[in-house]
Amino acid sequence: MNPTILESYIEKVYGYAVNHTYSREEADELAQEILFTAIRELPGLREESRFEPWLWGVANNVTRGFRRKLGKQRAMYSYDTLENLPCEEEYFDGQEEIYDSLRTKIAMLSRIYRDIIVLYYYDGLSTKTISEKLNIPEGTVRWRLTEARRKLKKECTDMKETALRPVKMWLDIYGTGNYDGKNVPFPSVYINDALSQNILYHCYEQPNSVEELAKICGVPAYYIEERIENLLKRAAVIEASRGKYQTDFIIWSDKYGIYFEENAEKVLMPMMEKLLKALGGIAEEAAAIDFYKAEKGEADLFYLYGAMAFSYVSRHYCRLPWPEIPKNYDGYEWRYTGGVETGRHPRKGISTQHSANLGSRGGCNHTVYNGVSGMGLRMMMYDNYINVCEDILCGGSTKDTDSAAGAIQDGYIVKRQDGSLFVTVPFFTKEQKEEFDAIADRYFAPLMPEYSEAVDRFLSGYKKLFPKHLSDDADRMCRNVFLGFYEVIIEYAQRVEAIPMPSQDCCCDVLVQFMIQNKS
Predict the structure, then answer these.
(1) Boundaries of domain holding 195
(2) How far apart are CA 125 and CA 147, in angstroms?
(3) Four-CA torsion 34, 37, 38, 40, nearest 10 degrees
(4) Burial class (CB in 10 A: 0-12, 13-18, 19+), 283
(5) Element (DSSP H or E) covering residue 25
(6) Tens place of pLDDT for every residue, the chain, 520 residues?
(7) Angstrom distance (rounded) from CA 204 to CA 200
(8) Nearest one of 106, 474, 480, 180 to 488, comparing CA atoms
């Protein structure tokens, strides 16, 4: 039989592959395998009238083998803002049939057009990058993009402004886990593709079905189904009701920052001078403690003292609930968080990261306070870096030259001209930290009733901004405000020039000994 008969079935085979896979890449590969197998086995078919059922039999057999192979591959790798976005009513108001047609049109576009639409609008690639990825001239990409939009524009003139204007979101986690972003990726990596971001965004305030998401996002339902399956597996969405999915973590938007702008400083103003006076007293007394100051000036240390003091009172005086974080799918206790903030209305708050060398010696903790106005961003250390810093601070040198080299590269240690190693992070012994905590308690304890009342007034409206099904996450974020108001106080003090600005590139972090090492 003449193999050219297969040419008229190429589009049907590709459609079959699309319906039996979960991504464009998988559909491409499966379609190629089906066609290759059919060409190879076609000489064995004697009756042309039997061609079509024979072809789909080949397709079914190839698909079974393809799925087995794909399952093994997946198992090997399984370990591990938008402005003025129309709300859902604006998407569907009187246009249900148009958007049904749009989704169908996109699904039925020839592959060359559909791939370019998805690469351009959802993956955010330039026409030049697409030309390199598809190995075709950039002019051809532009022409195909224009042609694809022309075909679709007959059905939906608003495409660029709605379905094909994807949201861009940052994703992260909070909680505990053994991730370093290098050898062990953070869980957010596995849900960070552009289409998943848009699904998560549109399912945040209310649940949506696969069909509804296909309309909103302007891509075929089979793409949505693949992402939903992965988002369920990765504990990023829940099935709120039968066939309806909702994002299971907080996505920050400008509405939270606007609430901070309108209310945070206002609730603190009646006691602002008392808070600044307390911070000044803490700084003055803390300076007399003989801890390792890493050659930092008093102006820079003022910010560290304040962060440490607010961290202390947050632990000892905050009565707000902190619901326990349940274990996630990988056995660690963490939750996702994401954001589509524009940057025009930043939330105020302090991001606190802790790491300790519990995996080795278990005697020292590194704490980083990010988000303090005017201070640089610092990543937390891991076991080996903490160990070498402790070696240098307590013994003057370290034998772990490889880890020391890494710590030098990341800025935790500086190698001086005489060859000595200088730790750039302040260090408190256990006794010195206890002395500091006593100072912080003496100055802040009398202010805590009034401060707690101010926080409660702020939170009475703040918590209402979060979706009801995320009440535990909302409680945790509300508790963070108790410490995070330190940033509001600092910004006010800088604005009225009550305190000096920190030096350029200064970071707000500290090493604290929490266990006396046995030197014998």
Answers:
(1) 88-251
(2) 18
(3) 160
(4) buried
(5) helix 24-41
(6) 666 677 778 878 877 887 777 666 677 778 878 887 887 788 888 788 888 889 999 999 998 888 776 654 433 322 222 223 333 333 334 444 544 454 445 554 555 666 777 777 667 788 899 888 888 888 888 887 777 766 655 444 444 344 545 788 999 999 988 887 777 889 999 999 888 999 999 999 999 999 888 878 777 677 788 899 999 999 999 999 999 999 999 999 999 999 999 999 999 999 999 999 999 999 999 999 999 999 999 999 999 999 999 999 999 999 999 999 999 999 999 999 999 998 899 888 888 888 887 766 768 899 999 989 988 888 888 888 999 999 999 888 899 999 999 999 999 999 999 989 999 999 999 999 999 999 999 999 999 999 999 999 999 999 999 999 999 999 999 999 999 999 999 999 999 999 999 998 899 999 999 865 544 3
(7) 6
(8) 480
Residue 318: what residue type? C
Place of tokens 């690639």: 125
Neighbours of 417 (CB within 10 A): 5
| Beta-sheet pairing, 250-252 with 334-339 | parallel
Tokens representing 41 are 């086995």
Residue 107 has a CB neighbour count (10 Å cut-off) of: 16
Angle at 96 between CA 92 and CA 102, to 5 degrees: 100
CA–CA separation, 356 and 361 (whole Å): 9
Q: Could you identify the residue written with the tokens 């969405």?
A: 237
Q: What is the residue whose two structure tokens read 């100055």?
A: 443
**For position 43, which CATH number holds?**
1.10.1740.10
89 token code pair: 């009513």
| pTM (2 d.p.) | 0.67
Number of domains in the chain: 3
| 283 and 412 fall within a common domain | yes
Task: Note whether 306 and 239 are same-domain residues.
Answer: no
Same domain flag for 369 and 481: yes
The residue assigned the tokens 């591990």 is: 80
Q: For residue 342, what are the CA distances in angstroms to 42, 131, 255, 256, 480?
A: 58, 30, 10, 12, 22
Residue 131: enclosing H or E segment and its boundaries? helix 127-134
H-run or E-run covering 414: strand 413-415
CATH number of the domain where residue 242 is located:
1.10.10.10
What DSSP letter does each residue of 137-167 carry, written as one string? -HHHHHHHHHHHHHHHHTT-TTGGGTTTS--
Please compute, for residue 448, the number of CA atoms within 13 A of its CA located in the half-sphere on the CB side.
18
Q: Which residues pair with 170 in a beta bridge?
A: 339
